[in-house]
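Dear Dr. H.,

I hope your travels went smoothly. While you were away I took the liberty of generating a structure for the chain from your last submission, since the lab meeting agenda had it listed for discussion. I wanted you to have the full record in hand beforehand rather than looking at slides cold. The sequence, exactly as received, is reproduced here:
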Amino acid sequence: MNFSRVFSSFKKAPYPAVMTLITFVLFTCVYFFVTVRSIEPYYFSGLIFAIPFISFGAITFFTIKDKLKRKAAIILTSVLTVIMPIVMCFAFIFMAITAPLSTVTDLSRYHRVLKLNDYENSELIKHFPSKIPTDAKNAIFNYQPGFLQGGEGYKLKFSTDSNSIENYIKEFSQGAKWIGKSNHREAEINGVEMASFDSFGYNKLPIDFTIYLIISEPYKPFDWNHGKLSLVAVSKQRSEIIFFAEHW
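The corresponding predicted structure, in token form, is as follows:
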């Protein structure tokens, strides 16, 4: 490759060429964020952030090929340098706002949700299984991302065999802050009544479930307007286990 020829060619359009390079780097960073770092990857819609570097690249190309006058290239590049950041910011804000408003129920996203929320170091959800067990039946997953004053919630329910149920009971009996039923006085004191199990078809948690409370932290004593709640509920009768965590 004749680098001197390439350099001399780009000297015809230095301004759009530099902007092409800058916007390409920015596109790479933003596209990585909206695909790799998002619960629901924006593989297709994320390509909208490629518009700036494609536009500047086109201006550079046509200027080098003498299809566009240098003065016109400078004017177009200057105008796009003002307009494009504004448009791209609105596009990014739109994605950032709409993403938390979407409840994730796809079971295939379960591990991704936990991983992106650093579950291994999170007191709120580290008791959740890292992956949905292969022998789990009738699994239901529900994740609501937090946004502004809206709470973040993780919910998982599945059925399994009696041996697995006994193992879960043994595991959570050792580290639970409180163990009891939903109609016990302590359930109300610990904010368990704030938990919603509608996603699983239960208006209220049935009495045959035993609750193993992991975290119960109101914003203020007995004030559950804001707080953290994390628990596991197990029913031997139904062979069901529910993992629940919310931070609102």
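Two observations you may find useful: The chain has seven helices and six strands. The chain has a mean pLDDT of 88.

With kind regards,
E. W.
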